[in-house]
Amino acid sequence: MPRTVLVIEDDHAIRRGLLDALRADQYAVFDAADGEAGLKAALQVECDLILLDLALPKVPGLQILQEVRRVRPSLPVIILTAMGSEKDRVAGLKLGADDYVVKPFSVGELLARVEAVMRRSAERPKDVQEVACPAGVIDLERCEVRYGDGGRSELSERERELIRYLASNPGRAISRDEILARVWRLDPRGLSTRTIDMHVARLRDKLRYDAEAPVFLLTVRGKGYMLGGTK
Asked: Do 61 and 12 belong together in one domain?
């Protein structure tokens, strides 16, 4: 499966050049032409890296970067910045950008930086089909829990995708905002809902969660949820 890059750039000629160069180098691409569309795509599109212009209409690039780091902390971001805007480059790096490219840039330099950042970033999570749990096995393909005693319990589509996302990010607590963006496909900004907690509660019932000795679908105070080990 090709790696995917999201390009957020308002200059049509630059954006088209970036898309053509990335496609020629065997990347799949998405693009957005302003900050508003870029922020929505950055929170919801499945991609391996973002190329982010800082001088965007509607929503500035630094604000998009800040939201991405809050909701998708491990997603690589390379900022695109104009010559001489050192202050913006420094601000972007402080907010967690992985690298920057100064305009005007060559196609070769850009592709080299994209490849270097992807090599440094965490391995893309593999598609998870089965997850071992204390009660038995979660079969994500069949959308069910198979218990050690031979019983079974059906999972909803949302429950399955929640487990899949947590299992694809081992050892990391996933915030509610990230879950809303990546599993529910909702923009978490200003959204107040307990739907995630309710889904987790139902999942725990199906997984025969032991509140006295929790070891699997864990709550990490102040951070969110993560999968632990099995007994």
From this structure: yes
